[in-house]
Amino acid sequence: MKSVIKKISLFMALILVPIELAACSNGKQVIDYGVEAVASDQNEDIDFSFEKDIDTKPKSNIETKKDRDYKYAEKLKETILLRDKEERKIKGIFLPAYVAGNEEKFQVVLENIKKSCINAIVVDVKDEVGRITFAMDNDYVRSKRTIEPQIADIEAFVRVCKENDIYLIARVTSFLDNYLTKLDSSVALHREDGKYYRDNIGYYWLNPYREDVQRYLIEIGKGCAKAGFDEVQYDYFRFSADSGMRKVKFTEEETQGKSKIETITEIAQRIYQELIPENVFVSIDVFGAIMNSYRDQNSIGQEYVTLLKNVDYLCPMLYPSHYANKTFGLDIPDFHPYETIKNALKTSTNTINKTYDELAHYGKVRPWLQGFSATYLEEYIVYDPEQYKAQIKACEEEGYDEWLFWQPGGVYKWDAFYD
Questions:
Q1: Which residues touch 141 (CB under 8 Å, ≥6 apart)?
Q2: Which among 187, 273, 287, 178 has a CA at the least distance from the CA of 237?
Q3: CA-based end-to-end distance of the chain
Q4: Closest Cα partner for 260 from 295, 302, 293?
Q5: How far is Cα 278 from Cα 124, in angstroms, rounded to an integer?
Q6: Residue 135 CB coordination number (10 Å)
Q7: pLDDT digits over 203-225, tens only?
Q8: Using the 8-state DSSP alphabet, how is residue 62 labeled?
Q9: Cα(326)–Cα(341) distance, rounded to whole angstroms?
Q10: Residues 265, 304: contact at Cβ < 8 Å?
């Protein structure tokens, strides 16, 4: 009798496995992060053990969270395939809007790009102040009265970039906002005493739970797509990390029982689903610390792998100067750009592969690297071409072929980028 059961079980396994593999392929190649990926528990309801009796009990019709996640992933993959846009391997730099909008300054940048490996520019569209930096053609955004152009002729700027084969990324400072919060106090975070919440630097923040705030970010993304940007990148896409947030109390009506992680994740999903049909790529900037720290994830609402499943690109900020001394066993990480980036990216790969699920959609990881000298630290080193190249080398060795450099003023050591 046991031999019969074994044969039946083997027959079922041979039938079910090909069906499962066919369902997960969806015509696209599964992303390989350099480590053998195994779905953690995708077959938890199927018992392939040859030593157990066949379960003839009817399966429950109750849809689980995992079922919903898989349905969402399949729908997402189908939608992505409809987007008529080719991916590129990006090697980019950040430019503030006042540089991009200054013809003389931008011409200098352009000449350097022509001689280098740089093929992408990240430009402020909603800056840290909260200003929209060009005359955006979007009625909802216009109604907020936050447009304060720094790029006078966005059409000309986009045209020049396209003529020079430059990939354009629109940086949107999401919930950090000193502009709209003052025009409309209802969208801002407030302390229990009714006063504005301000972080340690003195910045105001938008309330992520508000639907009109979420709509604002989506409409900014649509305005960027209409202007000709290739990608919309959401920075400060999180709750404030400062201790003063303890004085901010959200009502049950606002949160509807959702955690910060659930809230940020749902907003990411909403943005992604609405912007894919606009024919743009979507990316989110995150802290490097959230890769393996639940405490940090829970504090600001960013969960590394979950967000990776809801973007085209996840961009961890891996600046060596931002890591505490002794991190990765390094005395002062800022002194060790190569080792810091290498260890951070190893952590990224390991974090992804711990729960890798071949049925899910995954974006790509494209790290932010340090293009500035951290003069605000007591102990720092000057970041010259040598430090730039060390970080790039670490990326290449860990299998990450895309990166972005951050220098707040847009002033770079271009020798590091020349071919």
A1: 132, 147, 216, 219, 220, 223
A2: 287
A3: 70
A4: 302
A5: 20
A6: 16
A7: 999 999 999 999 999 999 999 99
A8: P
A9: 14
A10: no
